[in-house]
Amino acid sequence: MLCISLLVISALLLAIFKFFVKDRHYWKKRNIPEVQGVMWKFLKSQKSIAEIYKDIYFAYPEENIGVYNGPKPALIIKNLENIQAVLLGDFQSFFSRGFNTNQNDQLTDSVLFMEDYERWRIVRYKISPVFTMKKLKSMFYIMERCARDFMQFMDNNQEAINKPFNALYTYTTASITASIFGIDANTQNTMDSPFIEMATKATEPSFQTNLKFLLASTFPKLFKLLQLKFFGDHEYYFINVVKQVLKERRKDNDKRYDFIDTCIELQNEGVMRNLETGYQLVPSDELMAAQAFFFFIAGADTSAHSMLFVLLELSGNPDILKRLHKEIDSVFEKCNEKLTTDNIDELKYMDMVINEAFRKYPTIGSIQRKCTKTTTLPVGQIKVEKDVQVIIPTYAIHRDEKYYPNPDVFDPERFSPKNIGNIPKYGYLPFGEGNRICIGARFARLQMKVGLAWLLRRYTLKEQVYKPKRFEPSFFALRDTGARVDFIPRRI
Ligand code: HEM
To answer: For 468-482, what is each residue's pLDDT tens digit?
Structure first.
């Protein structure tokens, strides 16, 4: 018995050892410089993964740098033409993000996490209409109402005045909630979203979630065996809320122009079909709930942080703030304090400011793809084998002097009509690019603009210099939830 146990343990240890050494020096053998221990550095350091990639990007002059995601080889690529190939040109080889999830994890069955090409394609195609400009315009009354409620929230909430992240997060979660579930005459205050706690818990980086992501991408078989779930804590609650809302809305013929309207339309059309391939999918309540859940996960924290970075930079650049105030005041005076989408379009300088904040602080600091079919990157003829991950280091590219002179200076003029042509193609990626580009980019911009317009109509900012030593240790995002901004009420 002892002999058998010893034999089993030895075989197991040998298998683990083989697993770890199999791809050791994978990159060295292919004449690509390599950096070991990146994931360990991430778990140990108090930095975001995007900052670790940035350090590597600037430490090596080469265009391709090999790293290891656990024992698995991953390639950081710098060349913008190769980035274009990964995100668009050679999409068939790189459609996957490489997020492994378990089938029982119902809330991960969303466009963001989907790895099955056909499933992703049909769901993305069917829900895209929610984010067209036409649909957003009809939804704008919801966002405007949220921005007004946000002002009331700021006025009554002293804590929000100094540490604004929580307030901004309350606003973005509220406006996503209202855009998914709609508002009606009985809605007292949109800031009382019942999903704030759920969204906070689901997006807050923790050692446990980081470990799950690491396990899912390095030991997918073990991850499957253990049937681990990323969002299991919220599954029962959220799916049931969506089911209930869908049930009630089916009885009611009122158009609200929200996501639930789109779900009902899709469900009324019946099975979703791809006529070319014959692929079919039922738009079940669960599938719709997973999409809605991911609007919170993908949209609330990113939008709140992007607004926060705008405010932090404005508080360090009084001339830029002054010019923006002037633009906002003139629009508000013209529209009698009731914004429309046309007024939002007039805020051209605000667009420049937001674009520059996205450049300096791309909240999603790196983009990843998994190679699903061995291929070659065009520049340098770099072979990428199936299952290798490719990392696009957005944060590092946005701070590269080669593309953005004086990259640490906040300069909205980079995005003026005169200069915008200098922004390099595939060198500006706050929302990604290509076929898997952020589906909510227009929504996010609109939500940010209306929120910031109201905020800066009411308040100005105390001058301060923002120079973060590092961001929070997140696997995906650049976060600084504790950053302070001092708001001073304006006398208009
Ligand atoms: C400032 C706010 C936001 C930023 C910076 C942001 C950024 C991004 C980035 C970088 C990606 C990955 C793109 C790629 O891999 O090429 C992404 C994907 C995605 N985003 Fe956003 N996002 C924001 C807001 C939103 C909002 C408000 C929503 C929904 C309401 C949303 C929904 C999604 C979805 C569903 C995907 C996956 C698309 C797919 O795989 O087909 N995002 N976002």
So the answer is: 999 999 888 999 999
- CA triplet 386, 11, 21: central angle to 5 degrees? 40
| Ligand 1 lined by 295 (C-beta under 6 Å) | yes
Domains of the chain with CATH codes: 29-489 (1.10.630.10)
For 288, 369, 451, 464, the CA distances from 441, given in Å and listed in that order, are 20, 19, 15, 30
Query: Tens digit of pLDDT for each residue in 234-279?
Result: 899 999 999 999 998 998 877 788 899 999 999 999 999 999 999 9
Residue 389's beta-bridge partner residues?
A: 74, 370
Residue 82 token pair:
């190769």
Atom 17 of ligand 1, residue of closest alpha carbon: 438
Q: Establish whether residue 174 lines the binding site of ligand 1, counting it when its CB lies within 6 angstroms of any ligand atom.
A: no
| DSSP-assigned letter for residue 140 | H
Count of all residues that appear for the chain in the document: 492
Rounded Cα–Cα distance for residues 292 and 263 (Å): 10
Decide: helix, strand or coil at residue 128: helix
* Residue 404 Cβ contacting ligand 1 at under 6 Å: no
Is residue 363 classed as helix, strand or coil in its secondary structure? coil
Which of 431, 433, 443, 475, when mutated, tests ligand 1's pocket best, judged by the most ligand atoms within 8 Å of its CB? 431
